[in-house]
Amino acid sequence: MSRLVRASAALLLTSAFVVPFAPTAGAAVPMEPSGDADFTLTILHANDPESRLLSASGQEDFGGAARFTTLINDLREAEESGSDGVVTVNSGDMYLPGPEFSASREDGAPFYDAVAARYAGYDAIAMGNHEFDFGPDVYAEFIEQLPDVPVVAANVDVSKEPSLAALRDAGRIAPSTVVEAGGEQVGIVGALYPLLSTISSPRNVVIEDVVAPVQAEVDRLTAEGVDKIIMISHLQGIAYEERVARELTGIDAIVAGGGHEIMANPDDALVPGDQVTAHPGTGAPLSYPLIATNPDGEEVPIVTAGSNYKYVGRLVLDFDAAGDVISVSDRSGTVRVSGAGDDAVAPDADVEAQVTKPISDYVAELAETVVAQSEVDLNGVQNPGVRTQETNLGDLVADGLLDTGVRNAADYGVPEPQIGIQNGGGIRNASVIPAGPLTSLDTYSIAPFANQVAVVPDLPRSQIKELLEQGVAAAPAASGAFMQVAGVNFAYDPARTAQVVDGDGNVTTPGERVRNVILHDGTVLVKDGKVVEGDPITVVTNDFSARGGDNYPFRGADFTVVGSTYQGALERLITGRLEGRITEAAYPEGGAGRIVVGEEATVPDPGTGPSPSPSPSPTDGPTGGPTDGPTGGPSGDPSDPASKSPKPGDGGDGSLPRTGTAVLGLVAAAVVAVGAGGAALYLSRKRKGAEPAGLDG
């Protein structure tokens, strides 16, 4: 449907991708408007809000749902006079586990992300991966609280999930929708990342490959006379969207999601600290829009606009009478959500009252709720840190998994685990937390995802060695797969052969790095690089890792979630077994010697670290009943882990940052929202069900 007129020749992209396909063309500048347009359509879009409802992280003057609402409504009003029609869409990841989202899980609280979506006035919303982090039933509750706006996904089958199937039957979930804009029919088709089960918890939702079902839906709309069709997709990276654009016909534009890329033109103002994302093939900055060429030789603009309510994207397309796109208006681009400077907008009063205020109160409560006193600085820096070596904070998080796994094993009918494994990529505060008070909000900044504590029973010792080998396979380079451990000490030699694992968790090159492995009860599992035969071992980890995330070679082993998120397990360990005191003896700076470089593991000292109780007391039962739909947020996008990872601060002198950026942003936003000089407000609402640690159960 497209025959775009461009201001300059496309830059031919020839560099190799890290994904198995070659790139196509990208536009260096937006295309000039054509003088013979028969119809002009503006697409306003948001990407990956992810519950960042208060403000951009560490930037209280930018972002936030209330300012975003004002801006998108102002742009819609302006475009309705400058265009023939306007549609407003969101590419998914409407919410994300964390402190702001947990406010929605209070008794009687609405889904605040759904409230914000109502005021944004979307015509269609795509499915994102994080919508499934708490499983299909929670997602269904969220959709029920949205306004009467369709959620679109052509390659998703929800028929085996009753709560979502009911919404499909009611027309709330559909492959596509048709919107009237300026007297014209505009089709909007959705698509979701096919490998969703590797990064979230769709349970019985089936996701097909993208091209065939989307093409079938586009062809159906075209046969019904719809000649203006856009796709809103959540494929986790612009490279994937670009590949799909080159394989589909009949689509006039794609609004991409999941990759958090920032596209912008030279005159587009960005949130301080943001940079335009480099194209994964050429390394050149991504201009707005990126252009791909489809099989018919037609050019398709692809757009995205960052994440976290920081930007509104505005794509203005000129069509001829035949319904072909002939140009992209030069007013297309990325518009930042600002509360300061010449482009500042005032927060929407309704969103401020119904979303910002209650969440600010809740976050202020978390920031004021001290769960422990630490005698020692806790190191959660990523590199060097939890992604390269043992740290005391890594030990603490892994101990939380083991503590909860042992506590809850009997209630969930699984053996008590002997080893705890936490992937370093799931520890996200990216800072050193100074000795002193540790708050509930700190635990969310450390462990922000919906990852559930999962027990994997009776693994052969050879597979335990493979798991440990995977944890150190990238060393000394930083990797989210580098593991923090509990219940075990091991030694490895980074000069030896690294293990290689394929996408199915099969070891294609055996690792020779892990030399010595000793359980904390003294049992030797590996000696001189060789597995010592003996009884199988039960592991507790998070369900992201248990599903094979970070290529951990669990290879589809059965696992059982045991009633807690990893954040809940961390907070419960601190407030329970550690009795609110993190000692330097148990968690020394540099770690307790659980992971060492060399041939011989440190001999475990039974007098250090927590000692999980093998039998819970009557008040120490699981934090929630058994679930048949474990949740699991990813530690990052598996196709590009760095794209979503918080970056540690750097003062230029090599010193470590002293506080988590997530905590700073949330606390600052809360303080601004509740008013300077006011005391932190303490909520008295009872938390939902069995959720004493925030997102448990």
TrEMBL record:
Low complexity biased stretches: 636-648
SUPFAM superfamilies listed in its UniProt record: 5'-nucleotidase (syn. UDP-sugar hydrolase), C-terminal domain, Metallo-dependent phosphatases
Pfam name, any one: 5_nucleotid_C
Region (Disordered): 600-659
Gene3D superfamilies to which the protein is assigned, alphabetical: 3.60.21.10, 5'-Nucleotidase, C-terminal domain
First and last residue of the signal peptide: 1-27
Segments crossing the lipid bilayer: 662-683
Positions with biased composition (Gly residues): 622-635
Bias (Pro residues) ranges: 607-619
Start and end residues of each 5'-Nucleotidase C-terminal domain: 370-553
InterPro entries, A to Z: 5'-Nucleotdase_C, 5'-Nucleotdase_C_sf, 5'-Nucleotdase_CS, 5_nucleotidase/apyrase, Metallo-depent_PP-like
Keywords: Hydrolase, Membrane, Nucleotide-binding, Signal, Transmembrane, Transmembrane helix
Family the UniProt entry places it in: Belongs to the 5'-nucleotidase family.
Protein known as: Bifunctional metallophosphatase/5'-nucleotidase
Gene source species: Nocardiopsis lambiniae
